Amino acid sequence: MKILIADDSRVMRQIVTRTLRQAGFDGHDLIEASDGKETLDKAQDEKPDLIISDWNMPEMTGVEVLRKLRAAGNNVKFGFVTSECTQEMQDEAQAAGSLFFIVKPFTAEQFDEVFSPILG
């Protein structure tokens, strides 16, 4: 499975990658994007199976990326790993088509719980 990890922080992308491995999700093809526009471009060009996105990114927020993908008919599995966690944001994410909303800091156990149904 190809997974796109989108976050403007290189360190956070590395932490997400490490946590995926700690949760037992090795062997997937991981690609990265450092802003919203790059995320949208890679979602269209690389055709990932899953996008794990930060909410706040330069160029375009994660939810804007999600809305653009859905408007274009792209139904890639998409969710958020973010430090922002108001109920309004979670509702907005869900309304846009998000599958999950993980709040930082997170654990490998949370990743296992959220990603097991998605990654198998």
From TrEMBL:
The modification 4-aspartylphosphate is found at D54. Keywords: Phosphoprotein. InterPro entries: CheY-like_superfamily (IPR011006), Sig_transdc_resp-reg_receiver (IPR001789), ST_Response_Regulator (IPR052048). Residues 2-119 form the Response regulatory domain. It holds the Pfam family Response_reg. GO terms for biological process: phosphorelay signal transduction system. It comes from the Bacteria. The keyword Phosphoprotein applies. This is Two-component system chemotaxis response regulator CheY. It comes from Krasilnikovia cinnamomea.
